C-alpha cells in the first residue's frame, strides 16, 4: 500500500516528476558513461603491448622509451648499433627479439622498420597476435604492411605504391620518392598504435636512405636466424623488444643490458612503464570524475527542490494521513520513497540508454578510433556508482522529508 | 462511558484571547448519536481533534473507551485513533490520486489486526451498501462527484469498525438531496454497527436524526 501511495503520488505530478527523472537519467548516463569509457580506455591502454618482456633502447627516461617504441610518440634520443643488438639477442635466455627502426613517415603516419619477427611475436590485449585482413607479411625490401587505420584513411589496398619521407611532417621536403614501397599486407584493427603504423623491413629503411640508385628490389629479408647471409645488414636500429624463455630471467637480462659497457642502453618492463604513464594520465581521470559527480549533484539538488515544493501542496494528504492514524514518520518515509523511486527509474532509464548508445556506437568507435568499448555495465564500479546515486537521492530528499515530518507533527497545533 | 471529558482546558499556543475550550464535564454513552452545533470559530473542530487525540490538552482528562488519551505518547494516540476512531470531514476525505478501494485499504493499513484479504471484501460490501456503483471504485476519487466522495468517505471511516465516528460538517458541501441521502446511509450503518457518533454541524434542520442535540456553549464555559 505504501508503495502504491508513493508511486501514484508521483504519477499524479507527472510534469515536475518527469523533468526530475530526466535530469537524474542524464546524470546516470554521464556518470556510468564516463566511468565506462575511463575503464575501457585504461584497459585498452594497458593492452597496447603484451607478451613483451623487455623493451630496450638508448639510455633515456623509461617513459620516453615506452612512448616512442610503443606509442610512436616523441623521438628517440639515440640509436643502437646492430652489433649490440646481435650481442644481446645471442643471450641464451632470449627467446625472440623484434628490432624497430623509427624516423620516417608517410602522410603523417609513422614508418617502423622491423623484421618478420614483429608479426610472429608482437601481441596486444590479452596476448592477441596481430592478424592480417589482407595480404601477407613483407618479404621484399620495398614491401610494406599497413596498419588498418592507415589503409582505411589513405585508401590503400594491397599493391598500392607508397613513397616514404624522412622526418615526420606530411610536407617533409626529403621525400624518398625514387624508392616507392609496395603494399603487400594490411593488418586487422587492434585498437593500438599498430593501426597507425606502416611496417617495412629494416633493410628497406636502410636502402631508402642509402644512395642505392634504384635498389635491388629482388632482395629478400633474411630472418635473424641467418644473419650472416644477410646482404644488407642494417647499421643501427632505434629500439628492440625482447621475449624471454623464462619470466624468471627478466630482471637478470634487464640488469645485463643496463650494465652493458659497449653502449649505454636501458631495458624497461612494459607493464611497469605503462602503469607509470597511466598515473600521469590519472589527473585527467579525476577531472572527469569530478565533472560527473557535479552533474549528479545538480540532478539530486533538482530532485530535492521538486520534492520540497511538493511538500507545500500536500497539506490535504498530511491532514488525511494523520487522521487515519499515520505517524509523522510515515510521511517522512513517503517522501523518501518517492525519491528512491525516481532514482531507481532514473537508473533504469540512464543505464538502458547508455547500453543502447554503446551498442550503437561500438562499431563506429572501434572502426574510427580503435577504441573498443564493451557494452558491459554490470561492473563493480558501475554498481557502486548506482549505489552512490541512490544514497545521494536519499540524502537530498532528507530536507523535504524533514519538512513534511515537522509539518505533520504540528499540523493540528496551529489552526 | 465511551467518551468522557473531565476538566479540559485548551487554547492554541499562538492565540492570546484566552481559553478556546473549557469543559468541566461532558460524556457520551455507547451508541449515542450526538449533534453538536454552534457558530463557526467556537471550537467545534478543536473539540473533535481533542477527542481523536490529534491535539492534547494541557489541563484535564480525555478518556475514550476507558483509556486516557492525554497520558498516551503521540505514537500511541496515532495507533489508538487508527483502531478506534473514524473521521469524516466536510471535504478532503480522500487521497485524490488513489481510487475508492485504495483509499479504504490505506485507512486499514494503519489499524492493527485485520486480514488484508478481508479488507477488500469488507470494502466492497461497504461501497455496495453506500450505493457507490462498482464502475466508480477504480477511478481516482478526484473524478467522483462530491456526493460520491462523501459516501466513499463513510466507507473509509468505517473500514476499521471503529467504536467512535466523528463527523465534522460532512454535509456542508452537499445539496439537500445528497445531504439527506448521505445522512440516511451514514445513520443506517452507524445504527447497524452500534457506533457512537459525534456529529458537528451548524445545520439544525438535521437535528431529528440524532439522539441528543447540544450547543457547544451548553457545556463549554469559554473565556472564563
3D architecture notes:
- The complex is a heterodimer of chains A (415) and B (224).
- Chain A has 12 helices and 15 strands.
- With 415 residues, chain A is α+β, with helices and mostly antiparallel strands.
- Chain A has 2 domains: 2-46 and 281-413, no CATH class; 54-268, no CATH class.
- In chain A, the strands form 3 sheets. In chain A, strands 1, 3, 4, 7, 8, 9, 10, 11, 12, 14 and 15 form an 11-stranded mixed sheet that branches. Chain A has a two-stranded antiparallel sheet with strand order 2-13. In chain A, strands 5-6 form a two-stranded antiparallel sheet.
- In chain A, helix 2 (14-46) packs antiparallel against helix 9 (270-312), helix 2 (14-46) packs across helix 11 (328-369) and helix 11 packs antiparallel against helix 12.
- The longest helix of chain A is centred in the C-terminal third of the chain and has 43 residues, at 270-312.
- Chain B has a 5-stranded parallel sheet, with helices on both faces. A 4-stranded antiparallel sheet of chain B has the order 2-1-4-5, with helices on one face.
- Helix content of chain B is 35%, strand content 21%.
- With 224 residues, chain B is an alpha/beta fold.
- Chain B has a single domain (3-219), classed as P-loop containing nucleotide triphosphate hydrolases (Rossmann fold).
- In chain B, helix 5 runs parallel beside helix 6 (176-193).
Can you identify the CATH class of chain B? Alpha Beta
Quaternary status of these chains? heterodimer
Q: Largest chain interface and its two residue counts?
A: A-B, 25 and 33 residues
Structural classification of chain B: alpha/beta
Written as H for each helix and E for each strand, in order along the chain, the element string of chain B is EEEHEEHEHHHEHEEH
Q: Strand order within the widest sheet of chain B?
A: 6-7-8-3-9
Shape of chain A: elongated
Largest sheet of chain B: 5 strands, parallel
Q: Give the helix level of chain A as a range of percent.
A: 40-55%
Helix content of chain B: 25-40%
Question: What is the first-to-last residue Cα distance of chain B?
Answer: 27 Å
Count of domains of chain A: 2
Count of discrete structural domains of chain B:
1
Distance between the termini of chain A: 30 Å
What structural class do the secondary elements of chain A suggest? alpha+beta
Amino acid at each position: 500500500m505504501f508503495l502504491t501511495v508513493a508511486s501514484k503520488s508521483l504519477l499524479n505530478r507527472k510534469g515536475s516528476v518527469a523533468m526530475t527523472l530526466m535530469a537524474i537519467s542524464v546524470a546516470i548516463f554521464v556518470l556510468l558513461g564516463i566511468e565506462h569509457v575511463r575503464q575501457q580506455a585504461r584497459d585498452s591502454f594497458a593492452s597496447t603491448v603484451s607478451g613483451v618482456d623487455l623493451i630496450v633502447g638508448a639510455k633515456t627516461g623509461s617513459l620516453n622509451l615506452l612512448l616512442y617504441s610503443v606509442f610512436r610518440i616523441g623521438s628517440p634520443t639515440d640509436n643502437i648499433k646492430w652489433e649490440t643488438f646481435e650481442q644481446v639477442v645471442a643471450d641464451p635466455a632470449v627467446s625472440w627479439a623484434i628490432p624497430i627502426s623509427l624516423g620516417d613517415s608517410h602522410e603523417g603516419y609513422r614508418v617502423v622498420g622491423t623484421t618478420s619477427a614483429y608479426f610472429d611475436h608482437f601481441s596486444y590485449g590479452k596476448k592477441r597476435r596481430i592478424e592480417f585482413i589482407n595480404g601477407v607479411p613483407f618479404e621484399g625490401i620495398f614491401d610494406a604492411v599497413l596498419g588498418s587505420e592507415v589503409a582505411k584513411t589513405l585508401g590503400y589496398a594491397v599493391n598500392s605504391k607508397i613513397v616514404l619521407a624522412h622526418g615526420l611532417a606530411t610536407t617533409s621536403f626529403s621525400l624518398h620518392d625514387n624508392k616507392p614501397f609496395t603494399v603487400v599486407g594490411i593488418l586487422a584493427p587492434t585498437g593500438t598504435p599498430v593501426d597507425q603504423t606502416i611496417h617495412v623491413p629494416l633493410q628497406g629503411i636502410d636502402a631508402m636512405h642509402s644512395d642505392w640508385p634504384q635498389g635491388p628490389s629482388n632482395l629478400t629479408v633474411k630472418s635473424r636466424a641467418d644473419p650472416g647471409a644477410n646482404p644488407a645488414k642494417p647499421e643501427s636500429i632505434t629500439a628492440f623488444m625482447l621475449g624471454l624463455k623464462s619470466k624468471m630471467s627478466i630482471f637478470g637480462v634487464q640488469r645485463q643490458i643496463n650494465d652493458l659497457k659497449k653502449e649505454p642502453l636501458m631495458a624497461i618492463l612494459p607493464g611497469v612503464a605503462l602503469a607509470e604513464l597511466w598515473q600521469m594520465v590519472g589527473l585527467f581521470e579525476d577531472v572527469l570524475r569530478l565533472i560527473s559527480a557535479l552533474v549528479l549533484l545538480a540532478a539530486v539538488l533538482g530532485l530535492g527542490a521538486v520534492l520540497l515544493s511538493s511538500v507545500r501542496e500536500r497539506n490535504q494528504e498530511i491532514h488525511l494521513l494523520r487522521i487515519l492514524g499515520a505517524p509523522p514518520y510515515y510521511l517522512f518515509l513517503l517522501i523518501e520513497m518517492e525519491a528512491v523511486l525516481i532514482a531507481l527509474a532514473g537508473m533504469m532509464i540512464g543505464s538502458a540508454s547508455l547500453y543502447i548508445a554503446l551498442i550503437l556506437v561500438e562499431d563506429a568507435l572501434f572502426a574510427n578510433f580503435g577504441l573498443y568499448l564493451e557494452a558491459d555495465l554490470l561492473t563493480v564500479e558501475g554498481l557502486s556508482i548506482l549505489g552512490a546515486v541512490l544514497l545521494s537521492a536519499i540524502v537530498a530528499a532528507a530536507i523535504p522529508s524533514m519538512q513534511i515530518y515537522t509539518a505533520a507533527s504540528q499540523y493540528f497545533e496551529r489552526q | 462511558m465511551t467518551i468522557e471529558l473531565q476538566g479540559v482546558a485548551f487554547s492554541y499556543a499562538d492565540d492570546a484571547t484566552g481559553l478556546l475550550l473549557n469543559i468541566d464535564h461532558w460524556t457520551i454513552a455507547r451508541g449515542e448519536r450526538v449533534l453538536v452545533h454552534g457558530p463557526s470559530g467556537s471550537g467545534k473542530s478543536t473539540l473533535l481533534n481533542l477527542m481523536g487525540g490529534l491535539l492534547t490538552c494541557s489541563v484535564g482528562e480525555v478518556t475514550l473507551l476507558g483509556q486516557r488519551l492525554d497520558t498516551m505518547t503521540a505514537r500511541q494516540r496515532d495507533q489508538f485513533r487508527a483502531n478506534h476512531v473514524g473521521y469524516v470531514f466536510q471535504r478532503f476525505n480522500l487521497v485524490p490520486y488513489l481510487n475508492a478501494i485504495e483509499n479504504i485499504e490505506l485507512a486499514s493499513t494503519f489499524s492493527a489486526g485485520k486480514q488484508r484479504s478481508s479488507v477488500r471484501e469488507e470494502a466492497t460490501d461497504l461501497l455496495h451498501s453506500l450505493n457507490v456503483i462498482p464502475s466508480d471504485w477504480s477511478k481516482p476519487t478526484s473524478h467522483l462527484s462530491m456526493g460520491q466522495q462523501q459516501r466513499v468517505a463513510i466507507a473509509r471511516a468505517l473500514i476499521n469498525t471503529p467504536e467512535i465516528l466523528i463527523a465534522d460538517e460532512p454535509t456542508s458541501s452537499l445539496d439537500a438531496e445528497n445531504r439527506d441521502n448521505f445522512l440516511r446511509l451514514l445513520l443506517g450503518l452507524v445504527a447497524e454497527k452500534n457506533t457512537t457518533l459525534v456529529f458537528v454541524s451548524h445545520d439544525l434542520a438535521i437535528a431529528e436524526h440524532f439522539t441528543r442535540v447540544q450547543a457547544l456553549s451548553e457545556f463549554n464555559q469559554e473565556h472564563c
